[in-house]
Amino acid sequence: MTVIDVSRLQKRYGDTVAVQDVSFAVEGGEIFGILGPNGAGKTTTVECIAGLRTPDDGTITVLDRAPHDPELRKLIGVQLQESQLPEKMTVREALELYSVFYPEPADWQRLAGELGLTAKLGTRFGQLSGGQKQRLSIALALIGNPRIAILDELTTGLDPQARRDTWELVESIRDRGVTVLLVTHFMEEAERLCDRVALIDAGRVVALDTPAGLIAGVQAEQRIRFRPSVAFDTALLTALAEVREVRTQGSQLEVIGEGNLLHAVTATLAAHQIIANDLRIEQASLDDAFVALTGRAAGEEN
Ligand SMILES: Nc1ncnc2c1ncn2[C@@H]1O[C@H](COP(=O)(O)OP(=O)(O)OP(=O)(O)O)[C@@H](O)[C@H]1O
C-alpha cells in the first residue's frame, strides 16, 4: 500500500529552484531513502511532505491526505535537521511535554529505555552529547506512535559507533511496522538500511531502485586480487572473454574485467593447478553508482 505519493513536485526559493521535478511513492513498512549531494533538494522535499512547506507545483498525498491536513500531525513523526530544544530543558521534561501533544502517545519512559536515555532523564538538553541529542530527537519523533517517521540526516555528526547504534534503532522502528522516510547523503547508511532509494540530484530524481539494483545498474568493472601459488603466463587469463586486463604488482596479480569474472578466473587457475592465495574481490558499491549517476562524489555540492 502506498503511504506517501509525491508527483512532479516543484519548489523554489526566490530565484533558487530547490526541487525541479521529484516523483516517488513510498510503500507501507519500508525504509525509503532519499539520497543525494548537498543542496540537491532532499530537505525541501521532506519538508513539503511533512506539511512544513507548500509546493509551488505538483501533488503530495500522505496516508491519502494532503500534507497540511491536521489529522496527519498525529500520524507522522518528524525528526528534522538541527532540531533544537531549550538548553535548560531536561530530557524528562521534553518527553513529557511532547507526549501531551498527541492523543495516544507512546509510553515515554519505555521509549527512553529503548533509546538508551533512561540514565539521562534528568540531564539538560545543553549537556547532552551529539549522539544523545540525536536519540532524543528520534524519541520525540516517535512519541506520538506515528505510522510514518521522517528522519533527516539523523547520523550527521555522529561517531561511527553512535552511527551504527542509530542504524539498529531505525531498523527496530521499521520492525514495529512504522514506515521510515530517511534522508541521507551517506552511501553506507543507504546501503545498509534502505529497502529502496530515490537518488536526487539538482532537484530531480535521477534513479529509483533498491540499493542492490542501483549498484547492478552501474557497469562498474570488477577487480580480483590474489597471489598465485606458482608463476604462470598471464596470457592464460587475458585470453578469457571476461578479462580486460591483468596487472602484476610484486607477487600479487590484479585481474580487471566484467561479467562472471570470478568464476572464469578461478576455473582457469584450477584447471592449471594454480592456487589463488589471499583472494580478494572488489565489487561496485552505492558510491560507484552515485558517482556514475551524478558525476560527483557524495558530499560534493551541486
Ligand atoms: N529557506 C531557504 N531559502 C532559500 N534557499 C534555500 C532555502 N532552503 C534551501 N535552499 C536552497 O535550496 C536548495 C536545496 O536545498 P535543500 O536543503 O533542500 O537540499 P538538501 O539536499 O537537503 O541539502 P543538504 O544535504 O545540504 O541538507 C539549495 O540550493 C539551498 O541552498
Automatic annotation (TrEMBL):
A Pfam family: ABC_tran
GO CC list: plasma membrane
Bilayer-spanning residue ranges: none
Subcellular locations according to the entry: Cell membrane
ABC transporter domain location: 1-227
SUPFAM superfamilies: P-loop containing nucleoside triphosphate hydrolases (SSF52540)
InterPro entries (UniProt xref): AAA+_ATPase (IPR003593), ABC_transporter-like_ATP-bd (IPR003439), ABC_transporter-like_CS (IPR017871), ABC_transporter_ATP-binding (IPR050763), P-loop_NTPase (IPR027417)
GO molecular function terms noted in the UniProt entry: ATP binding; ATP hydrolysis activity
Membrane topology: Peripheral membrane protein
Record keywords: Antibiotic resistance, ATP-binding, Cell membrane, Membrane, Nucleotide-binding, Translocase, Transport
GO biological process: response to antibiotic
PANTHER family: ABC TRANSPORTER ATP-BINDING PROTEIN
The protein, known as: Spermidine/putrescine import ATP-binding protein potA
